[in-house]
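Quiz preparation item.
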């Protein structure tokens, strides 16, 4: 029992670290009115292990905090709470949808991050835009959804394919 807890904690920590490094290293692309946070490809890991849920959540919180301190995160301090909550909820739904597979890959698990972040982060960005209108709100949600589709669906599918090809999920004991 203790070994599994330590393993899950270590896995969550590694995922949080990978998410944070990937986000901060390409900060101009990860923050802003138009963004594609490539670290979101890691959200597919929630379809393999529940340890990814806290890992992704902590990684997102750290990334948003660092982005704010660098002046890159234009959504401000609210993104530390709202963006992190969206990522955490999306990871939980990705875990819940893990059994729905397309050609053996948990591709439906790539959709919750797109949906949750489009609404949450799109709303945040619309509120900090120079002029808030309903049209701006829908445009921002669409732009976030587009970036998430690239990162989560395309990047997540590639990562899931690599996990299957290398049998990493079986070697790590992920379900």
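Solution:
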């Amino acid at each position: 029992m203790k070994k599994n807890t330590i393993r899950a904690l270590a896995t969550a920590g590694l995922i949080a670290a990978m998410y944070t490094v990937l986000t901060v290293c390409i900060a101009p692309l990860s923050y802003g009115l138009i963004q594609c946070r490539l670290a979101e490809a890691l959200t597919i890991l929630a379809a393999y292990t529940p340890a990814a849920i806290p890992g992704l959540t902590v990684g997102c919180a750290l990334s948003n905090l660092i982005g704010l301190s660098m002046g890159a995160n234009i959504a401000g301090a609210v993104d530390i709470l709202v963006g992190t909550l969206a990522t955490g909820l999306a990871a939980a739904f990705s875990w819940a949808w893990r059994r729905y597979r397309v050609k053996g890959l948990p591709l439906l698990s790539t959709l919750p991050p797109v949906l949750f972040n489009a609404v949450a982060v799109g709303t945040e960005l619309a509120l900090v835009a120079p002029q808030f209108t309903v049209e701006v709100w829908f445009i921002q949600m669409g732009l976030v959804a587009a970036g998430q589709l690239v990162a989560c669906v395309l990047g997540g599918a590639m990562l899931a394919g690599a996990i299957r090809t290398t049998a990493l999920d079986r070697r790590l004991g992920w379900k």
